[in-house]
């Protein structure tokens, strides 16, 4: 899978803090995600592959395409960590940028 290879290269040999920053700034096109929280109850549980990312939405396809607002949503995805994988949750409110804008931003850890 192309996205998995992209993330494996991006996250290779990183400490956890740097890894989380890189995940937050990554391009999600092709990522497999699941909506685990949303202010819109009908969005919870939607899972599939990200086919489009806008400033405020993700388009997720799996037997049809659903447009999911980033605001008020939490997305779960698996990312490679060495020969294993870990699940991470992304808070949509902190991703309210296009992928190109997000890739040059610096993210601070939220305590």
TrEMBL record:
Subcellular location: Nucleus
One Pfam short name: RNase_P-MRP_p29
Chief site of localization: nucleus
GO cellular component terms attached to this protein's record: nucleus; ribonuclease MRP complex; ribonuclease P complex
GO molecular function terms noted in the UniProt entry: endonuclease activity; hydrolase activity; ribonuclease P RNA binding
Entry keywords, A to Z: Cytoplasm, Endonuclease, Hydrolase, Nuclease, tRNA processing
Listed InterPro entries: RNase_P/MRP_Rpp29-subunit, RNase_P/MRP_Rpp29_sf, RNP1, Rof/RNase_P-like, Rpp29/RNP1
SUPFAM superfamilies: Rof/RNase P subunit-like
GO biological-process terms attached to the record: rRNA processing; tRNA 5'-leader removal
Superkingdom assignment: Eukaryota
Family matches, as PANTHER family: RIBONUCLEASE P PROTEIN SUBUNIT P29, RIBONUCLEASE P SUBUNIT P29
Family label: Belongs to the eukaryotic/archaeal RNase P protein component 1 family.
Record protein name field: Uncharacterized protein
Organism the protein comes from: Tortispora caseinolytica NRRL Y-17796
Taxon lineage: Eukaryota, Fungi, Dikarya, Ascomycota, Saccharomycotina
């Amino acid at each position: 899978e192309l996205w998995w290879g992209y993330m494996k290269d991006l996250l290779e040999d990183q400490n956890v803090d740097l890894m989380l920053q890189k995940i937050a700034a990554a391009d999600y096109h092709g990522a497999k995600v699941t909506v685990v929280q949303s202010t819109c109850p009908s969005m919870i549980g939607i899972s599939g592959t990200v086919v489009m990312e806008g400033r405020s939405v993700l388009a997720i396809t799996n037997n049809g395409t659903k447009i999911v607002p980033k605001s008020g949503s939490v997305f779960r995805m698996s990312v490679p960590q060495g020969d294993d994988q870990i699940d991470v949750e992304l808070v949509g409110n902190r991703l309210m940028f296009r992928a190109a804008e997000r890739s040059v931003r610096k993210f601070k850890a939220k305590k």
